[in-house]
TrEMBL record:
PANTHER family: DNA RECOMBINASE-RELATED (PTHR30461:SF23), DNA-INVERTASE FROM LAMBDOID PROPHAGE (PTHR30461)
Annotated SMART domains: Resolvase
Pfam annotation, one family: Recombinase
Official protein name in the record: Recombinase family protein
Domain Resolvase/invertase-type recombinase catalytic: 9-155
Coiled coil regions in record: 386-452
Keywords: Coiled coil
Organism (species): Paenibacillus medicaginis
Chain ranges of the Recombinase domain: 163-287
Length: 518
């Protein structure tokens, strides 16, 4: 391990994670430890602090660490309490390592100095320590998750803010009925049992002055969530989710569900809740049948199921007039704060479709330019960190193999005893295994990154090339492959609203929209 001169200027990095139960006291302790450590050794420094999980995959979610690495040329060393403060994620650990090698920066903790540029042993020790940090992070996560699941099985509430109508007892950790809101919940189920739908129930609640927990107006989605929630029959449900990649995007997937009956007092009797569930299923089946009939009658438009209100976020619908023209219906949802109707006006669908087609042409050109850039720059600029790390790892493996050969020669000279030779041989063997494992992980990362992005872009370009010749039904399916939603907004002044629907000035009234891609 290399030494560093007294008085050198470095960067001190401090990090805590609230997810692991750390708080400002922990940060203050670390601050005092590093301040005293630097004072005793004569180091000067610039301080970087942040409260964020060390397991983050994206360096952009670590703004202070990102800033430190951008300013790395100003420093001789990075000072930190321990390596796991820098990162508990293998990708970011390797990014930090490569920056330190490229700029000859040492990482110094109160108990260890890592000279990553000049010492093979330090590089391997850093990799191994980083692997242990990742393993510890995963173990802590599993332990916390197991603890939450066990508490849920005991009927304790561990899922954030309690549902409307309940409060969490801080002593028992169980839910208790909050009567002012529970009365509203019972009223909602009563209205539902009388055959009213979520929109009508929301209108009644708002007209009678009821508010949500956040003191906002009731939306149909809020009513639906209350009716669907088994918490009101005394049942506690906890989903164990795993962050995984499916169909090219990351999402949380439910891998296990804990259901605890009679976990807390019920606001709605279980048999009454189950009856409401059956009624919901019957109404849903009838609504689905009606929707299918409507689709057959009106046909499928290019933007079906993609339109959303740019004011309140509610879903927008399209209707077909007798003359065969399609219209975007005005938004009928209520604004959360005022309880008034949204006021987003509709218009002829073809006007928006024409605008979307123009934007798709521009999007196609951007994709072509982006794909061309990737193809031209791939050999020089993509994945430099991982590829260079692979080269370093292979070089380290060669060095270890050379040391093993030299050790065999020394064993034949008799200068060193068998015990000492055995200790060194085992040490080199462990280093070799650690390097081999690290190389395999790096190769996996390279393979993933090399195969990501390009194929998806090429697929979208192929779909856009075929788009003009497709039927509206096929166009709709194509758009849903890469467009998540289109937010449409059109507010009409009072004097324009007073004009007839076919008035030229009203028809030309402007609108705006944004496209959100997957």
């Amino acid at each position: 391990m290399g030494s560093i001169e007294v008085g050198c200027f470095g960067a001190t990095y401090l990090r805590i994670s609230r997810d692991k139960g750390e708080n400002e006291d922990t940060l203050q302790n670390h601050r005092e430890i590093m301040t005293e450590f630097c004072r005793q050794n004569g180091y000067t420094y610039e301080m970087y602090e942040e409260i964020v999980s060390g397991g983050k995959y994206d360096l952009g979610e670590r703004p202070q660490l990102q800033q430190l690495l951008q300013n790395i040329e100003q420093y001789k060393a990075i000072f930190t309490v321990s390596l796991d403060r820098l990162a508990r994620n293998g990708v970011i650990s390797q990014q930090i390592k490569q920056v330190c090698i490229d700029h000859e920066i040492k990482i110094i903790t109160p108990s260890q100095t890592f000279d990553l540029c000049n010492s093979l042993e330090d590089r391997v020790l850093y990799d191994v320590s980083s692997m242990f940090a990742v393993m510890e992070y995963e173990m802590i996560g599993r332990r916390n998750k197991y603890n939450r699941m066990q508490r849920a099985r005991r009927g304790e509430y561990v899922s954030g803010k309690p549902a409307f109508g309940y409060r969490r007892n801080e002593t028992t950790s169980k839910l208790e009925i909050y009567e002012p809101e529970a009365e509203v919940v019972r009223y909602i189920f009563k209205l539902h049992s009388e055959g009213l739908g979520k929109q009508k129930i929301a209108d009644i609640l708002n007209s009678e002055g009821y508010k949500t927990q956040r003191q906002r107006s009731f939306q149909p989605s809020t009513v639906k969530a209350i009716i669907n929630n088994p918490v009101y029959k005394g049942c506690l449900v906890l989903h164990d989710r795993k962050y995984t990649k499916e169909n090219g995007e990351y999402t949380f997937k439910v891998v296990d569900t804990i259901i605890t009956d009679d976990a807390h007092p019920a606001i709605i009797a279980p048999d009454e809740w189950e009856q409401a569930k059956r009624e919901r299923a019957e109404r849903g089946a009838k609504a689905a049948a009606l929707r299918e009939k409507a689709t057959v009658k009106t046909g499928t438009t290019m933007l079906k199921d993609l339109l959303y209100c740019g004011i309140c976020g509610g879903k927008l619908f399209v209707t077909k007039e007798r003359n065969g023209k399609y219209l975007i219906k005005p938004c009928e949802y209520l604004l959360p704060d005022s309880g008034e109707k949204c006021g987003n006006h509709g218009m002829r669908l073809i006007l928006l479709e024409e605008e979307v087609l123009c934007k798709l042409q521009a999007h196609r050109e951007r994709l072509r330019q982006g794909l061309l850039h990737i193809q031209q720059q791939d050999a020089l600029h993509l994945l430099p960190g991982f590829r260079k790390h692979r080269e370093h790892t292979e070089q380290q493996m060669e060095e270890v193999q050379q040391l093993q050969s030299e050790l065999e020669e020394l064993a034949g000279t008799g200068i060193f005893g068998d015990e000492e030779i055995g200790v060194q041989a085992n040490r080199l063997l462990r280093l070799e295994h650690a390097l081999q494992e690290m190389k395999e992980k790096v190769l996996q990362q390279i393979q993933k990154l090399e195969s990501s992005g390009v194929e998806e872009m090429e697929g979208i370009l192929d779909m856009l090339d075929q788009f003009p010749n497709q039927t509206p039904e096929d166009q709709n399916q194509t758009l849903k492959q890469f467009i998540r939603r289109i937010d449409y907004k059109r507010r009409l002044p009072e004097e324009i609203k007073a004009l007839s629907a076919n008035n030229r000035e009203r028809l030309k009234s402007p609108f705006s929209y944004t496209i959100e891609y997957w």
